[in-house]
């Protein structure tokens, strides 16, 4: 039996297992994205704060997370924290690890977007009596989102593919299940082709949605 015949024969048995892993990957990606967005915005605000100690702490965090591999960070969160009595489930460790790593990258995206807004608008809003938090929420961020949307969308697509790292801490996502199938059947090429097809089926629609959002944001900017 040749390669393609084997693939067609085993696909109905492998796909349900892999799709269960794909669902876990989507959950990890969504959770990590929410954490990265919140953490990135908080870090960006600290990076532009007039309080120098907070700026230094935020910069140190960004440099540390961007300067070390995400896989190493996952190992520290999952295996290292358990050594000091703080045990996390594989799913929680994957979400926290990828989210904490993504926050460092998105911090620069948020900072650049906020910095691109003319300072005169902020000064005008403050002169009208708006508190700084409202100026950020209602004046700066709505305009900065149009600038930040393309890199944020690209990050979301990349994050979905980066969930493969979660298998390193035994999170039962698609690559974890794929490796188990390979060890059971030795049909590595067939399994990984199915994995690639699933990732394409997930990432291509997401890329199209991201492109439409970018076009809509650009249209709104006009």
Task: List the SSEs and their pairings.
Blueprint: H1 3-47, H2 52-67, H3 70-83, H4 90-115, H5 119-127, H6 132-162, H7 174-185, H8 188-221
Describe the structure concisely for a colleague.
This protein has helices at 3-47, 52-67, 70-83, 90-115, 119-127, 132-162, 174-185, 188-221. The chain has a single domain (3-221), classed as MetI-like fold, CATH 1.10.3720.10. With 222 residues, the chain is an all-alpha fold.
Task: Please name the defining characteristics of this protein.
222 residues; single chain; MetI-like fold; 84% helix; mainly alpha
Structure description:
The chain has 222 residues and is mostly helical. The protein has a single domain, classed as Orthogonal Bundle (MetI-like fold), CATH 1.10.3720. Helix content is 84%, strand content 0%. The protein is built from eight helices and no strands. Helix 4 packs across helix 6, helix 6 runs antiparallel to helix 8 and helix 7 packs antiparallel against helix 8 (188-221). It is flat. The N and C termini lie far apart (59 Å). The model has no long low-confidence stretch (mean pLDDT 88).
């Amino acid at each position: 039996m040749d390669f393609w015949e084997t693939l067609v024969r085993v696909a109905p048995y492998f796909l349900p297992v892999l799709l269960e892993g794909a669902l876990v990957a989507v959950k990890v990606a969504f959770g990590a994205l929410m954490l990265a967005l919140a953490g990135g915005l908080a870090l960006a605000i600290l990076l532009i704060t007039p309080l120098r100690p907070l700026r230094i702490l935020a910069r140190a965090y960004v440099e540390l997370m961007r300067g070390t591999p995400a896989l190493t960070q996952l190992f520290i969160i999952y295996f290292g924290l358990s050594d000091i009595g703080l045990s996390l489930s594989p799913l929680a460790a994957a979400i926290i690890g990828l989210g904490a790593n993504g926050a460092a990258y998105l911090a620069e995206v948020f900072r650049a977007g906020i910095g691109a807004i003319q300072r005169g608008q902020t000064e005008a809003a403050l002169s009208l009596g708006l508190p700084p938090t409202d100026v950020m929420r209602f004046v700066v961020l709505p305009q900065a989102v149009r600038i930040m949307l393309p890199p944020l969308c690209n990050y979301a697509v990349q994050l979905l593919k980066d969930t493969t790292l979660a298998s390193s801490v035994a999170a039962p996502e698609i690559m974890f299940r794929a490796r188990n199938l390979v060890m059971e059947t030795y049909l590595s090429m067939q399994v990984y082709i199915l994995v690639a097809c699933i990732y394409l089926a997930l990432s291509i629609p997401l890329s199209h949605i991201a492109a439409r959002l970018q076009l809509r944001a650009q249209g709104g900017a006009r």
